[in-house]
Specification:
About 5% of the residues have low confidence. The protein folds into two domains: about 60 residues; about 210 residues, no CATH class. The strands form four sheets. The protein has a four-stranded antiparallel beta sheet with strand order 3-12-5-7, covered by helices on one side. It has a four-stranded antiparallel beta sheet with strand order 4-8-9-10, with no helix packed on it. It is about 30% helix and about 15% strand. It is of the alpha+beta class and about 350 residues long. It is rod-shaped, with a radius of gyration of 56 Å.
């Protein structure tokens, strides 16, 4: 016996049944009737129409990829967001570019950029104004003031006077010899200058630093003072302020601005001090003695001789310092440098 479907009651033959055309046609008639009923169903037709309307509305709301930012569609909103982001990105890039322009590059010099100012200040601090420097002169030359420098500090001295040589006069009276006086000296003396200014340095009858200062050489010691008159043994006086006088047979030479006076020996006086120490009096090679430092007067020779055997005065020197640390160095040098010729 055949079975039937639960909804439309369509006949379902068994596998062992022969095909029955009447059963097949009957099933088709039932399906035809049911489809007709469905098509004519008003509620179903209303639902289909509503679905179609909703689909069109969705398509309208979404729009298309070519919609402008002013379109009230999804693609229009996306275009608006894109324009906003692009505008903001351009603004950020513009600001970054502006900052980058103000920062500049590491090689900038003499510009208003951050690097330009840093490099300018670095040059001032590292090379001139802060660290500063010095130049030493022992012969004629020219000093050029560095960039950014408007003040220099001069330490200098004239040449020391030669020491005197002991001798007899024509009546065979023993005479005493005096040391030479120290050259005029200054330590870390300040002068106002201009950047790139050229200052000639000359040595001769005096030590001359441009039109800033002239330092006199020391006087040579005497070879004809009478030992019976102690006052005459003081010997040559200093030509320059700061240079030590020569000494007599009982006293060392007078001290200079930083150098000590030389020590006496027998009837010979020590040289006056200047930047460096004065030379000690000596008796040929019969005693230990020191030679004069920069600007120091020569010590007297107490042997019976001529002036050609007297001790030479110390040489002149000019040292020009600049910058903050340069000034400090000039003070330190005054204490340590000038007795090492």
């Amino acid at each position: 016996m055949a079975e039937f479907t639960p909804n439309f009651n369509l006949k379902k033959p068994y596998e062992t049944d022969f095909f029955n055309i009447e059963d097949f046609n009957g099933n088709m008639d039932i399906l035809d009737e049911k489809l007709k009923e469905a098509i004519q169903n008003e509620q179903l037709q209303g639902n289909v129409t509503e679905i179609k309307g909703t689909t069109e509305e969705i398509k309208t709301s979404v729009g298309s990829s070519g919609d402008l930012s002013s379109s009230p569609t999804l693609f229009g909103r996306l275009a608006e967001i894109k324009e906003t982001l692009t505008s903001k990105f351009s603004e950020v890039v513009s600001k970054i570019t502006g900052v980058d322009g103000k920062i500049g590059a590491s090689g900038d010099s003499g510009t208003d950029t951050v690097f330009g100012k840093l490099n300018e200040n670095s040059k001032i601090l590292n090379n001139d104004f802060f660290i500063g420097g010095c130049e030493i002169f022992k012969e004629n030359n020219t000093f050029t003031v560095p960039d950014n420098i408007t003040e220099i500090y001069v330490t200098a001295c004239g040449r020391g006077g030669n020491g005197g040589a002991r001798n007899y006069n024509t009546s065979k009276t023993m005479k005493a010899a005096t040391g030479g006086s120290g050259g005029e000296a200054v330590v870390s003396k300040s002068f106002i200058v201009s950047p790139k200014q050229t200052i000639p340095i000359t040595f001769g009858a005096a030590t001359v630093v441009g039109d800033l200062i002239s330092l006199q050489n020391g006087n040579s010691g005497s070879t004809s003072y009478d030992t019976s008159d102690p006052e005459t043994l003081i010997g040559a006086k200093s030509n320059g302020t700061g240079g030590g006088h020569s000494g007599n047979s009982s006293e060392r030479g007078y001290d200079g601005v930083t150098g000590q006076g030389g020590r006496p020996y027998g009837v010979g006086g020590g040289g006056g001090g200047s930047l460096g120490n004065g030379g000690d009096a000596f008796h040929g090679t019969g005693n230990e003695f020191r030679f004069p430092g920069y600007g120091g007067g020569g010590g007297a020779n107490t042997r019976i001789s001529t002036s050609e055997y007297a001790q030479q005065g110390g040489p002149a020197i000019v040292i020009i310092y600049w910058g903050i640390l340069g000034k400090q160095q000039s003070i330190s040098d005054a204490l340590n440098r000038f007795n090492n010729i």
